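User: Hey, my collaborator sent me this sequence without any context and asked if I could get a structure. I don't really work with proteins. Can you help?
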Amino acid sequence: LLQTRHAENKQDFCSIAHPDQTASPTESSLPESQKNELVQAGWSKCWSKRENRPYWFNRFTNQSMWEMPILGQHDVIVSIEIGIPVTPTTPRVPISPVTPRAKPWNSTTGTEDKPGQPASALYRPTIIYWDLDIQTNAVIRERAPANHLPPHPEIELQRAHLTTKLRQHYQELCYQREGIEPPPESFNRWLLERKVLDKGPDPLLPSDCDPIISRSMFREVMNDIPIRLSRIKYKEEARKLLFKYAEAAKKMIDSRNATPDSRKVVKWNVEDTINWLRRDHSASKEDYMDRLEHLRKQCGPHVTAVAKDSVEGICTKIYHISVEYVRRIRQAHQTLLKDCNITEAAEVQDRLVYCYPVRLALPSPNHPRVELHFENDISCLRYKGEMVKVNRGYFAKLELLYRYSCIDDPRFEKFLSRIWCLIKRYQVMFGAGVNEGMGLQGALPVPVFEVLNKQFGVSFECFASPLNSYFKQFCSAFPDTDGFFGSRGPFLNFSPASGSFEANPPFCEELMDAMVTHFEELLEKSSEPLSFIIFVPEWRDPLTPALNRMETSAFLRHHMSVPAFEHAYRSGSQYICKKEEMYYKAVHGTVIIFLQNDAGFTKWEPTPERIQELLAAYQVSQRTLGSPVPSSTSSAPTMPSPARSSLGNPQGTERERLRALKTLHFFVDNFYAGHTYHRVVVAYRPIHHFHICS
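Assistant: No problem. I've predicted the 3D structure and written it out in structure-token form, which is a compact way to encode the shape of the chain:
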């Protein structure tokens, strides 16, 4: 007889099928040898009195399945689980935290499976861009639950509104004080740069940074003063741009508190340039651009000096507004949670365990209703009129991640509201503009991940999100919303003792520099196998500090470069974009760097054969660019012209131009035009049942 798994579920199990149960055609057609193999693998057919139907149980793994297991896949869940908690098996060292089984959730209808009804199959996307069956090899010291306040749609909505207001304040300050529009993506990079330094309580907005003036925001605003220099194609455009720059520099030096010497130098160069423009009408485009570069070198330092206080004022003002907004959000959140009892955290033992998702110390309050409906292949979630959308395939992925990672919601009562908070958080972080922030979330192609796992044992992403991750174990920006979907928290707060990791950080210089510092600290103190494979843009004009430090690191084992336009990234909007827009060509070279300690080098050495496999994976992704469907012959969309020239940087860096190019993507226009919708609204209620309405 099978051991009873739980006292309250004794009536659900027996060691043989129900006497009235007739064998299914599939089972009857099995040869005797195949049946014996199932028995030897630990499988036996049982009868559930509660569900009134048979199920399969494995006495070795305590795994339960409604459908007959497939030979060779006994350790893989290939259908909906029954959802009855089981007694964990004896742990092995390192210890892997046990996640209780969740009740089945039907992603097709958005409802919970009810007793007595046939189990509906999960929505299975035809094309997937992840592999959630790969187990982790990352080992960490066991840690206490995080002290983040649990996410709630009401608080997330307030945070979204205040962040939008902060963006508007930034736009108004740039226009009022400097007469310019905010540099593209500068607010997003400000958030990334601030969170490297921030010690405040809010997961998104900074409130405790030193220094309060952001180097990233200061640099990008200053680059666009006195005017933003756009990409030039024709001679007349170059002539107009030179004239506009000269006029803007003269106007700024006249209206600001400049020294007499600065006024003299700027006015003389401006007058000389204007006279040259009036008398020389046969100049070429290159002549105009050379003259512009000369004028900028002469006037740039003086213009920067008079604008310095004003730009610092913009940075300071935005920071102080952010501090006030964090105070409001925190106060509202604490008011909402004041009736929640804070449970005492369990004592943390000093032992090695396989890494596990972030757990919150505070219990979650009851969540409000979030409505779900489907528009063709898009899942739409609405709360108080605010709608977020995600592809149904990615919705199914989030469901699986939630099953694997969440331990406080076995009935999926908070599932929809937590997805709404998750997607809303990332939308707010990267802005509401078309294509805004998408370049900061690009991911490696699937064939590259497959080779990284096969050849180098990689099972963990250092910079990802539940929306764009390939593995089910990853680090991400927001532990409070992402932890329920598998996140191990921010990577700079993650300290593995061993494992093989992939790192493709957002292209923010300050974040990449902090990343390198963290890598070297981890490699220095660990004697276990530890390996980091890093993918960063090849910015060498000038050379970024992070790239320079990695190429001269004592832990460097190998590095190579993949040329621009010869490889691709997966779009940051992959969870909502079309299949043919899933990949886009990289407009810059990518440097691949292997940082490993001695034990990691011994275990995952970047041999020539392995490196060749990795480069070949990029060639595979090139052949499938534009659509992952093998039968498709469409090619990848080429990147549109950049909105900004390298002249936008006083040092003439290629980096700023490539960064602007990186964020331009083809997006879906009029995506829903001409479609017929089959609309089902799921009214989500926190009382253990669902109300389905048309």
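In plain terms: The mean pLDDT is 78. You can pass these tokens on to your collaborator as they are.
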